[in-house]
């Protein structure tokens, strides 16, 4: 037999009486706002990616550098060299932001990790945007190293490499949104991995190879790939007098695709979290 102090009973009585009178449970605190939640998720995911994904970032960088070395025996210079260097640089973004993010969300959904995020008072958009932003920004060092190496290898000017400050986040947002959507919509994590690999292979074949040597049907498929416009924007800056109107146009397409793909990923997150 346990003994409960009388003071505790007297303290609990008003609360019980208040619940009986009001007839409703105590109200929860307000949900966190989008921006603070996004920053918190971004920092957490960036810390996690920095520990777990650094070896894979080296793989992505060395893969792109190896492709440029192989293409050096086929391509001498000119527009084809510009396409190879730009495509290899953006391929680093595709490897991490599309391939790895598709695998991450596929595994998160299969393991029940989405239930953890669903219990947190954060908007679904903050989870998707924060995670996608962390993976996209994680690609910046490898992309810069690949671009510099490619310029030295093919003798291209490095005057306008600063355009990567726009190419990396915009192309990264478009590819990260696509990768997150693939991972969240795939019925099994194996399918998410497969779709991520196929997407990265498409970015490799359609982004690195010079478009002049592609059949017309393959060029149409290339235009549907989000990373293509980041490649085109970067490749145009290697000319003596870049047409900045076309560069801004390609970047605008990247931004529009990024908004759409991240919106689809947010919808896919809500759909997967309620199941």
> What spatial form do the alpha-carbon principal axes imply?
elongated
Number of helices: 12
What is the CA–CA distance across the termini?
A: 44 Å
The helix fraction, in percent, is over 70%
Find the structural class using helix and strand composition. mainly alpha
Summarize this structure briefly.
The chain has one domain.
Would you kindly provide a written description of the structure presented here, covering whatever features stand out?
One of its GO terms (cellular component) is membrane. GO terms for molecular function: ABC-type transporter activity. Keywords: Membrane, Transmembrane, Transmembrane helix. Residues 1-15 have a biased composition (Low complexity). Its main location: membrane. It is a single chain. The protein is mainly alpha-helical and 275 residues long. It has one domain (51-271). The protein has twelve helices and no strands. The protein has helices spanning 6-22, 34-52, 54-72, 78-110, 113-119, 124-137, 140-154, 164-185, 189-208, 216-223, 227-236, 244-273. Helix 3 (54-72) packs parallel to helix 7 (140-154), helix 4 (78-110) packs parallel to helix 8 (164-185) and helix 8 packs antiparallel against helix 11. The two termini are 44 Å apart.
């Amino acid at each position: 037999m346990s003994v409960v102090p009388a003071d505790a009973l007297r303290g609990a009585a008003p609360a019980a009486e208040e619940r009986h009178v009001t007839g409703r449970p105590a109200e929860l605190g307000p949900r966190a706002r989008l921006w603070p939640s996004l920053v918190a998720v971004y920092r957490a995911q960036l810390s996690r990616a920095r520990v777990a994904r650094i070896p894979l970032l080296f793989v992505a960088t060395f893969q792109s550098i190896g492709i440029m070395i192989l293409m050096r025996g086929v391509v001498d210079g000119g527009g084809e060299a510009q396409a190879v260097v730009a495509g290899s640089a953006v391929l680093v973004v595709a490897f991490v932001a599309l391939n790895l993010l598709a695998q991450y969300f596929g595994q998160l959904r299969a393991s029940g990790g989405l239930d953890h995020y669903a219990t947190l008072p954060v908007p679904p958009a903050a989870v998707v945007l924060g995670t996608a932003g962390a993976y996209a920004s994680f690609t910046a060092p490898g992309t810069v190293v690949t671009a510099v190496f490619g310029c030295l290898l093919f003798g291209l000017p490095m005057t306008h490499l600063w355009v990567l400050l726009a190419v990396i986040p915009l192309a990264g947002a478009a590819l990260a949104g696509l990768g997150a959507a693939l991972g969240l919509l795939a019925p099994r994590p194996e399918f998410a991995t497969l779709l991520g690999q196929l997407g990265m292979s498409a970015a490799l074949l359609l982004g690195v190879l010079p478009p002049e040597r592609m059949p017309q049907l393959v060029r149409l498929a290339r235009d549907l790939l989000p990373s293509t416009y980041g490649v085109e924007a970067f490749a145009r800056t290697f000319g003596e007098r870049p047409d900045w109107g076309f560069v801004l146009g390609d970047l605008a397409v990247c931004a529009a695709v990024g908004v759409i793909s991240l919106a689809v990923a947010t919808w896919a997150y809500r759909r997967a979290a309620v199941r």
